[in-house]
Structures are given as C-alpha cells and as structure tokens.
Specification:
This protein is mainly alpha-helical. About 70% of the residues lie in helices and about 0% in strands.
C-alpha cells in the first residue's frame, strides 16, 4: 500500500515538471525578442529586416565568399522591393 506522503510527493513532482518546462520556454522566448534580426514591432511582430542584415546573417551562417555576397545582395534587394509593393 502506498503511503499518503509518497502519493503527495509524486503528485507534487508531476505538477512541478510542466511548470519548470514552461518557465524555461518562456525565458528562452523572452531572450529572442530583442535579438539581432530586429526589434519587436506592434503586435509582437518583428519589423522587416534590411537586405544588408540578411546578407550579414547569411554570410555568417553559410560562410559566403565575397563573390557570393555580391551575387546575392541584388536578389535580396529585389525581394524587399517586391514585398513592399
């Protein structure tokens, strides 16, 4: 037979695990709000990222050469124009 104290301990443990996990997710998402890709805009959405910022992140993520950067930049600028109109 399971003692009342042991039952209470297990119940507390089962309730605490989702709370701790939820707190970790909330803390992680708060750290991303002011991230390097732009500030949060109205309604919790980020504003548009400039082609230069996108190119900088792509260069870092994909280790782009200078030649690749010069070829990609006009594409990013054209995409930004297309999205604005």
């Amino acid at each position: 037979m399971i003692s009342k104290r042991r039952c209470t301990w297990w119940l507390a443990l089962l309730l605490a695990v989702p709370l701790v996990a939820g707190g970790a997710v909330a803390a992680q998402s708060q750290g991303e709000e002011g991230g390097p890709r732009g500030q949060m805009g109205p309604g919790g959405r980020r504003g548009p990222v400039s082609p230069d910022d996108r190119l900088k992140h792509m260069t870092k993520d994909f280790k782009l050469t200078t030649d690749q950067q010069t070829k990609i930049k006009p594409i990013l600028e054209a995409e930004q124009k297309r999205c604005r109109t």
